Amino acid sequence: LEASGCESLGSASGSEGDAEFAEGISLPDMDLELLHDPEDELLCASLMDEVQATLCRAPLGSKRCSRLLMPAQLQAQVRTELLRLACSEPCGLRGALLDLCVEHGKACHDVGHIAADPAVVPTFQLTLVLRLDSRLWPKIQGLFASGPAFAPLKLSTGFRVMKKKLYSSEQLLIEEC
């Protein structure tokens, strides 16, 4: 594993009792909290900071930028989902390539691409699709023509994540949250 640039999530010196216990339980049945790597937790916090910085300079129109505000509840939900999707990957979250998109009406705008760890060859790609808060959008849509260059917009707590393994021909996984 050292040659691949990834660190092992498990211990090579586990007891036989641990092995017998693990054989009787399938991965989906195990508590996902047990599978989280502490390094992934730190990396995820850094990744969420980078996501927020990318959203702050997101170009939603051809000439205008908008500061997109990510509510705390949305940050927590996205963080949990990223960690959950990374726990089954060979390099954990370090192997993630994150494409960040924002739905704006019926259009989906690409606002950034982030490598979780640029030193690691990506093993999976996540496309995170965030949505503008639909309760606010119709009320402020007309303000864009004469509004400030960086009008703050709040994101909805709903989002969609698509996961594509880059080392496998498995089907695309799409999750709506």
TrEMBL record:
- Subcellular location per the Swiss-Prot or TrEMBL entry: Cytoplasm; Mitochondrion
Output the InterPro entries linked to this UniProt entry. RTP801-like, RTP801-like_C_sf
This protein is called: DNA damage-inducible transcript 4 protein
Q: Which residues form a coiled coil?
A: none
Tell me yes or no: is Metal-binding among this UniProt entry's keywords: no
Provide one Gene Ontology cellular component.
Answer: mitochondrion
> Which keywords has UniProt assigned to this entry?
Apoptosis, Cytoplasm, Mitochondrion
* Gene Ontology molecular function: 14-3-3 protein binding
One biological process term in Gene Ontology:
response to hypoxia
